[in-house]
Design a protein that fits this description.
The complex is a heterodimer. Chain A is mainly beta. Chain A contains two helices and 14 strands. In chain A, the strands form three sheets. Chain A has an eight-stranded antiparallel barrel. Chain A has a two-stranded antiparallel sheet with strand order 9-13. Chain A has a two-stranded antiparallel sheet with strand order 11-12. The longest helix of chain A has 12 residues. Chain B is elongated and about 100 Å long. Chain B has two helices and eight strands. The chains are: A mainly beta, B mainly beta.
Chain lengths: 236, 146
Amino acid sequence: MKKSILIISLFLFLPVQNSPGQDAGIKLYLGAGSVRMEEMKYLQEFILSTYPVEGKITSSFPPFSAFSVLVFKQLFEQIRIGGGYSFSTTGGKSSYSDYSGSLITEMAATSHRLGAYLSYSVWGGELLDLSLYGKAEACMSDLFIQSNYTIASYTNSLQNKYRAISPAGTVGAELSFRIKSYALGLSAAYLVDLTGELKEKEEGNPLLDPNDFERTLHSDWTGWQLQVSVQIPFRF
Amino acid sequence: MRKAVLFLAKVSLLFLAPSCFYSDPEIFEVEPVPGDPPVFSVSTNLDSLDHPPVNDSLELIYQVEISGGELYYVYAEIAGTPVFESDSTFGLFWIYPGMADSTGVYTLSMDFYYSSNSNSLAARVGYEALVDHLQIPLDFNGGGQK
């Protein structure tokens, strides 16, 4: 057992030569992420069921944009620490339209996350570097629901804004390709959102399950993220 | 290199800005399949009279028969002046000489709005209706003036 721990420890602290690591820098991530959002899909189906006609859900929280910006410092040869901001968005839409009018319900959800970052380079070569990383984040979710209806010459619009705060964490792996003092990377990560109760932004009233007024609905950003990254050193 | 990176960053921001806002342009378009229109008929107590006279007063009683649909609204006017409205299939109201501007023959116009059964959105929420018109010439023979 002690021998195993020793081997693992040696592996962890083995210097990685020619890694694309910098003293400090910034990393920009751009890609897409899937989300769980089961309760938002449930709410969307409920809203559709209230239509007086046979409407359709044309999109239901599909994978959509995910961006991150990260400031890091090379703490050791293999270890980086830092912090940053992440943004994800997705949404859903249900609608019905005929010659006499239309009903459209749009849901737009955004996630703003601030958190700490820790990365460990498990393998580094002349040009390539493979690292594992994790993030501990505070997630602020905004949900915007807008219903528009036009019937004959009558038009109306209803809007509701909700917000939730939740802790979240991300684990991922990144393969980086070094170009001079820059690096391009490909990252795959899994975000775990511990979910937060959605409340009206202004009134603070909870967004209740329409079929169970004892239960508050949650946002849930848990899902996979696939991103490309650009690493820019602070010293050009 | 620095300029190139900054240029790329600016261009990326420009093109990626729309990605910050989720949107779905698709709208579910439907061609409603209409059902059979309701069978509608209306009768009044004046049907058998020709130019019924309005002396002191005249009572009008109407009865709507409708199957396979719903009566929404009944509206009556004489020379542009509303004299009656209701949402009932049976009703009555009184016509007085003062409802006409002067003596002569004036037409009582009644509009009956009822469900279209077109299965459109407007029809489902009662904002689309078929309309039947009934016109009865009335003889305002000078029993009263406005």
